[in-house]
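Fig. S4 source data, part A: sequence.
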Amino acid sequence: MRLQDKVIIVTGSTTGIGKAIALRCVEEGARVVIHGLEQEEGEAVAKEIGADKATLLIGDITMEDMPQRLTEAALTAFGRLDAVVNNAALVVSSNIHTTDKDFLRRVLEVNTLAPYALIRAALPHLSAAHGCVLNIGSVNAWSGEPNLLAYSISKGALMTMTRNLGDSLHREEGVRVNQINPGWVLTETEMKRKQEHGLPPDWYTKVPKVYAPAGRILMPAEIAAAAVYWLADESGPVSGQVTDLAQHPFLGRNPPKDTTTIPV
């Protein structure tokens, strides 16, 4: 039980990577605050875990009072707070022609400013517990795909925040801050997004090896397995680190021009 008795807020945990992280945390002995926008899905996750190990809060992560509400949900249900997983994110396609300032602001509000606000609200309790923050970024933080401009900008900003706070908060508050950058993950949202862009329902079974050397893309449970290390005491004093979780070296990689489809 690598997370025995820890209390962890996992934002965006009614589906996808966040749900997988919440479930894995509970398997490792933690209690969790489930959060997201989907009431029905959230109730299902909370029921699967059990009322003694999970509490549910539904709401927009950008609401002014949401950071305090999430923090209070952990304290009310379980009496303490040991870790925050900033996973909630808006994954949207855009480029320079489709990204106006209002659109970019909205993406930054969800993907960068909301995590920052939650860290601020939770900090006194994380400090008391000598706890930690795990930000869920993306390999797109390094520059990003041409059709993921706003998303890539927001994840790049999150990565810089992780490195900055990973130093300052560790020194001043005893709170570690780290980040994992997943590559391409087969979440419910990604399955739906690709179909909306014209791909067939089984698109994920035909991903060219240039994008997925293993013949498939990552699964949420594989990201959750990696998350446990950073949330557990076994990661010791390590802070301010960003780890890419992908099938190939993302930086400096030059795929051939003819990749025989998919992205979109």
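Fig. S4 source data, part B ends here. The mean pLDDT is 93.
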